[in-house]
Design brief:
alpha/beta, Quinone Oxidoreductase, Chain A, domain 1, Rossmann fold, 2 domains, seven-stranded mixed sheet, about 20% strand
């Protein structure tokens, strides 16, 4: 089969790989129809995540058609059109029983924190991802869900991570009616977090970024106020000024490990790799939220040390909430929001790229070319 293959930082290509096979009675093989490139895939592409091995196939956002099922699979049959959450999880361990699918205890022997994630290095289990023609899906009776007849395929693929994660980011904020919510990052997750904040009762939503085309999308898609941090000497002072010098009630970090805004953090976090990324957005979140407020973190960071202002968070009495998204837990509510017309996820899609051209897609997304916000990968044009 044809698949995207990692050959080192900034080096990917499409190659022939062996077809995935049923390795466990509860596996399924999915013929991928549509996948996506996620902003967190760029952390792998840039060489920021440890134990990203040569030959690995990325891609944790994908949908497709069931090609084959193991003998124990009961909920899927060949030909079913399915969406697959980015979490690999067993469904029965201590954490899965509590809905913490992203922390499954049985699927990642390499860590005691995160569970399994498709296509996200061996720090998350080493599972090949869906930027390929076919992918093996473990625990097929637990993760994949048949796509409803009324749901658009592009909306379905965005539910496998970006929309679910943005919604989860707003959910972690414990937003109450009338709250002021600030979202750092106007990428796909930030856009969905801002849009979701309105659904949870926010009275004011502000999005901060430094790319004007993304801020324009935030204004149109999420109906948010926007601030370009590059236009201010100190964006934290501006956030205080615009919130009566109190700070926002809730701040969402939807940026993660490659945040701009501090030369020192950029060098130590993304160039020298002395931190688990550049925590600029997280520190700005801590500084711009009011005392007693909530900081929600859904931007991805590496597993090693980061220079975060924890003392400030302590002294301000902040609530810090974060996790990888337990995707399937968000789906019942999001299905209804989409069906009722409150959300149209594929409004943020800007590019549709054939699998054979995925290297160009990564370059375009990484370099922020051609107004790229969310690129989809077409693995099977039929």
């Amino acid at each position: 089969m044809r698949a995207m293959v990692y050959r080192g930082p900034y080096k990917i290509r499409v190659e022939e790989k062996p077809m995935p096979t049923i390795q466990h009675p509860n596996d399924a093989i999915i013929r991928v129809t549509t996948a996506a490139i996620c902003g967190s895939d760029l952390h792998l592409y840039h060489g920021l995540m440890p134990d990203t091995r040569i030959g690995h196939t990325f891609g944790h956002e994908f949908i497709g058609v069931v090609e084959e099922v193991g003998p124990s699979v009961r909920n899927l049959t060949r030909g079913d059109r399915v969406m697959v959450p980015f979490n690999v999880y067993c469904g029965s361990c201590y954490y899965c029983a509590r809905g913490l699918f992203s922390n499954c205890h049985n699927v990642n022997p390499n860590a005691t924190a995160v569970g399994g994630i498709y296509g996200y290095s061996h720090t998350t289990g080493g599972y090949d991802g869906g930027q390929a023609e076919f992918v093996r899906v473990p625990f097929a009776d637990v993760g994949p869900t048949i796509i409803p007849d009324w749901m658009d395929s592009e909306d379905a693929v965005l539910l496998t991570d970006a929309l679910a994660t943005g919604y989860f980011g707003a959910q972690l904020g414990d937003i109450v009616e009338g709250d002021t919510v600030v979202v750092f990052g106007a990428g796909p997750v930030g856009l969905f977090a801002a849009k979701s904040s309105w659904l949870m009762g926010a009275g004011r939503v502000i999005v901060i970024d430094h790319l004007e085309y993304r801020l324009e999308k935030a204004r149109v898609f999420a109906q948010a106020e926007t601030f370009n941090f590059a236009e201010y000497d100190d964006i934290i002072v501006e956030m205080k000024r615009t919130t009566d010098y109190l700070g926002a009630d809730v701040v969402i970090d939807a940026v993660g490990a490659e945040a701009d805004g501090s030369f020192l953090q950029q060098v130590t976090g993304t160039k020298l790799k002395l931190q688990g990324g550049s925590p600029v957005a997280l520190n700005w979140a801590i500084d711009s939220v009011r005392k007693g407020g909530t900081v929600s973190v859904v931007g991805a960071y590496g597993p090693i040390f980061s220079a975060v202002k924890f003392g400030d968070a302590l002294n301000k009495g902040l609530t810090l909430r974060m996790n990888q998204t337990p995707v399937k837990r968000q789906w019942p509510r999001l299905f209804e929001h989409i069906r009722n017309g409150y959300l149209k996820p594929n409004d943020i899609v800007t590019h549709r790229i054939p699998l054979e051209h995925i290297a160009e897609g990564y370059h375009m997304f990484s370099a922020k070319l051609d107004g790229c916000i969310k690129p989809l990968i077409i693995a099977d044009p039929s």
